[in-house]
């Protein structure tokens, strides 16, 4: 599993990027300010992790891991803001779509999906940091 951690992180980042583009460009969901911040952290990852996975370069992990951690922290806050109405009143979005708007109207929200993607990327990158076991 450690040997393919970069590949798995890359796959998750590609799916997350395509999913966010699907929601905004095909479904017409306008991204809020926090969604844009999460995209800033996610969109470089498919390119960086794809090149690193192809070349087998684990040296990219110290550069991509902070993007995933920062994006995950934003996604966590965004998820909590949607689930706990009092948080939305503390620092409301003043421009564009309100950050506490739930387009999917269910338990699973778009920020929760982003949080899951960032968490998986963090786990796969942490696994890839270690040398593969010699057989």
TrEMBL record:
Pfam families documented for this protein: DsbB (PF02600)
Broad class of the protein's primary localization: membrane
Transmembrane segments: 6-24, 36-54, 60-80, 107-128
InterPro entries assigned: DiS_bond_form_DsbB/BdbC (IPR003752), Disulphide_bond_form_BdbC (IPR012187), DsbB-like_sf (IPR023380)
SUPFAM superfamilies per the UniProt record, alphabetical: DsbB-like
Chaperone listed as a keyword: yes
Gene3D superfamilies in alphabetical order: DsbB-like (1.20.1550.10)
Subcellular localization(s) per the UniProt record: Membrane
Record key words, sorted: Chaperone, Disulfide bond, Electron transport, Membrane, Oxidoreductase, Redox-active center, Transmembrane, Transmembrane helix, Transport
Membrane topology note: Multi-pass membrane protein
Family, similarity comment: Belongs to the DsbB family. BdbC subfamily.
Protein name, entry field: Disulfide oxidoreductase
């Amino acid at each position: 599993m450690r040997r393919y951690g970069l590949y798995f992180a890359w796959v998750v980042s590609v799916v997350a990027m395509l999913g966010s583009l699907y929601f905004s460009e095909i479904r017409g969901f306008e991204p809020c300010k926090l969604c844009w911040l999460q995209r800033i952290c996610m969109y470089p990852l498919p390119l960086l992790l794809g090149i690193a996975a192809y070349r087998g370069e684990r040296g990219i992990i110290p550069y991509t891991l902070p993007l995933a951690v920062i994006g995950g922290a934003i996604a966590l806050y965004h998820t909590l803001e949607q689930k706990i109405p009092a948080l939305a009143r503390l620092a409301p979005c003043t421009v564009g779509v309100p950050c506490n708007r739930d387009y999917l109207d269910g338990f699973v929200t778009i920020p929760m999906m982003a949080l899951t993607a960032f968490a998986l990327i963090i786990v796969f990158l942490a696994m890839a940091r270690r040398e593969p076991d010699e057989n």
